[in-house]
Amino acid sequence: MRLIIDQGNSTTKLYTATSSEIVDCVVSDNEDMLEYVRQRIANTPFEAAIYSSVRREYDKHLINVMSRKIPHIVCMGNTTHLPIGIEYRTPHTLGHDRIAAAVGAWTQQPGRPLLVVDAGTAITYDLVSAQGKFMGGNIAAGVSMRLRALHEHTGRLPLVATDGELPLLGYDTETAIRAGALQGAAYELEGYITACEAEYPELLVFLTGGDAERLATIIKRSIFVDKNLVPKGLNRILEYNVEV
Questions:
Q1: Beta-sheet strands, E only, within the chain
Q2: What is the pLDDT of residues 121-159, one digit of tens each?
């Protein structure tokens, strides 16, 4: 078994995986992460682990705890070997989640140009060439961020949830805001797909992240929706760096 740790700004996703699939996922507050990992590795014989953090400053105590039980540990960083090439001009600033999602998509569909979209707090649009090179991408505000910005930067607009009625055109303030944020993000994605298809006719599109399934219901395209794209990529990177 393998342990995959994906640490965000406030929470951490901890996955158990085999060589071919993600078995389970637990979401933990960062404050509780160490204790959860300690309990999990005490009861499960992991052969390898990968630790990725948006903070880029790894918890040395956590690494020490894992190293007592797990033979092979990889911490994502600038020197980590990757199964894809990176053409980004500043690779040291490239988020580990963007790299992992790209690797996860490429692992499933090698030899085709890929648009990898992660619809989370931010929406990232990243292109992987048919030759397996990360060519670059864009970062935009995510759906929840758009909703929050409309509330916080205006005088009277309410904070609207993403769940709820979603007409093409809103019929009251709540539906107008929700449709503006969600439909706007979907049309933005459609525009990126159209533009990238003009350059890469055999393009495949992968969509992941918390808002992926909601956006997929709006988009009139054939796309792959995969909520585990990032952990699948981290699992492949772990395998690429360690013989397991």
A1: 2-7, 11-17, 22-29, 48-53, 72-75, 85-86, 114-119, 122-128, 133-141, 204-208, 224-225
A2: 999 999 999 999 999 999 999 999 999 999 999 999 999
Q: Is residue 147 part of a domain?
A: yes
CATH number, domain of 160, equals: 3.30.420.40
Listed in sequence order, the residues at least 6 apart from 182 whose beta carbon sits closer than 8 Å to its beta carbon are 143, 162, 166, 211, 214, 215, 218
Classify residue 168 by burial, with Cβ atoms within 10 Å: 0-12, 13-18, 19+. exposed
- Which domain range does residue 186 map to? 110-229
- pLDDT (tens digit per residue) in 186-216: 999 999 999 999 999 999 999 999 999 999 9
3 domain residue, yes or no: no
Number of domains forming the structure of the chain: 1
pLDDT digits (tens, 9 = 90+) for 39-75: 889 889 999 999 998 876 788 889 999 999 999 999 9
* Residue 156 within any structural domain of the chain: yes
How far is the C-alpha of 50 from the C-alpha of 196, rounded, in Å? 32
Report in angstroms the alpha-carbon separations of 90 from 87, 97, 133: 9, 15, 14
116 pLDDT above the threshold of 80: yes
Does any domain span residue 173? Answer: yes
Show which residues are catalytic: 97
Q: Are 101 and 230 in contact (CB under 8 A)?
A: yes
Q: Residue 54 has what pLDDT?
A: 81
